[in-house]
Design brief:
This protein has one domain (2-311): ABC transporter involved in vitamin B12 uptake, BtuC (Orthogonal Bundle), CATH 1.10.3470. It is 73% helix and 3% strand. The chain has 13 helices and two strands. A hairpin with a 2-residue loop joins strand 1 and strand 2. Helix 5 runs antiparallel to helix 11 (236-260).
């Protein structure tokens, strides 16, 4: 019964992983860049919420709005000052650039806030409820619900709207999409902003759980990238399921390590284990080219017309 309870508790953490992972998937679908700076953006969200809510005594709702605004601004800055000048660089160069962003943001947090562990009160209710015969807190279910809502909204937008189709068309061939009057730079900027908003929002929600410390919140990027990888960096629903599995597995493993005196570190190793299994198992990878197809893809007529017009 305790294992079941910890598995349900882990769904809340998995919901936060899912929010961050969706930002990684979104940015990759738009620009083909695996954003390793996502963890530092999560860290920025946690510290920004602490700054606004604790140091300046702003209401939690106002602090959250400001946190999301900071995320959008940082996403736009990363795109216009870094990714746009590197748009013709190799994918490896752009990936290394995101690692540079991670290092810069982490250093800025250490300079501004120091390395001491800071505590942030949760803005979510922590009352206990009984579900499926076990007792869990309300905030776990709320975090799970937020993750599900974010996933559903992104899936609907990028599957059924013209913006979602144009995003995929731009990622596959910028010149072809530009031939129809679409701006690859504007599309990428919007997606970078939304991806950063998701990361900072997750940081504001996860800070009360993991406490505030620059290196601690950066570790969120590992489970998030693992979830995005299991979703082939293309599918929002698959990334969501993977994030929930990782969160539940980590929670259960933490419980088992405490009870059975197992070696510590198994919880943190779960994302690495899943990534290794994904890469090693036959047909688990290598099925896609540098730009994996959207599994939700219906028919990107915009992109077809682009190729026809350029070829003609």
């Amino acid at each position: 019964m305790e294992i079941w309870r910890f598995a349900l508790i882990g769904l809340g953490l998995g919901g936060l992983y899912a929010i961050s992972a969706q930002g990684i998937v979104l940015i990759y679908r738009a620009s083909g860049v695996v954003n390793f700076a996502q963890g530092s953006l999560v860290m920025v969200g946690g510290y920004a919420f602490y700054e606004f809510h604790e140091l300046h005594a702003l209401p939690s709702w106002a602090s959250m709005i400001l946190v999301l605004s900071v995320g959008a601004i940082i996403g736009l800055v990363i795109h216009f000052l870094l990714m746009r000048p590197l748009r013709n660089a190799s994918p490896l160069a752009r990936l290394v650039a995101t690692l540079g962003v991670l290092a810069v943001l982490q250093a800025a947090a250490i300079i501004w806030f120091g390395t001491d562990v800071l505590s942030v009160p949760s803005v979510l209710p922590a009352d206990t409820i009984r579900l499926a015969g076990v007792t869990i807190t309300e905030d776990s279910l709320i975090l799970l619900g937020i993750g599900v809502v974010v996933t559903v909204v992104l899936w609907l937008v990028y599957r059924f709207t013209k913006f979602g189709q144009i995003t995929t068309a731009v990622s596959e061939n910028e010149r072809a999409a530009s031939a129809l009057g679409h701006s690859p730079g504007a599309i990428a900027a919007i997606n970078w902003a939304v991806g950063a908003v998701l990361a900072t929002g997750a940081g504001a929600l996860i800070a009360p759980i993991t406490y505030l410390q620059p290196t601690q919140l950066n570790e969120v990027v590992l489970p998030s990238i693992a979830a995005a990888l299991l979703g082939a960096f293309a599918s929002f629903p698959l990334a969501m399921v993977a994030a929930l599995l990782i969160g539940s597995a980590q929670s259960v493993m933490t419980y088992l390590t405490t009870v059975n005196n197992w070696w510590s570190g198994w919880s943190e190793a779960i994302p690495f284990i899943l990534v290794i299994l994904y890469l090693v198992l036959p047909n688990a990878h290598g099925r896609y080219g540098p730009h994996p197809p959207d599994p939700d893809r219906r028919s990107y007529h915009c992109c077809d017309r682009c190729y026809d017009r350029v070829a003609g």
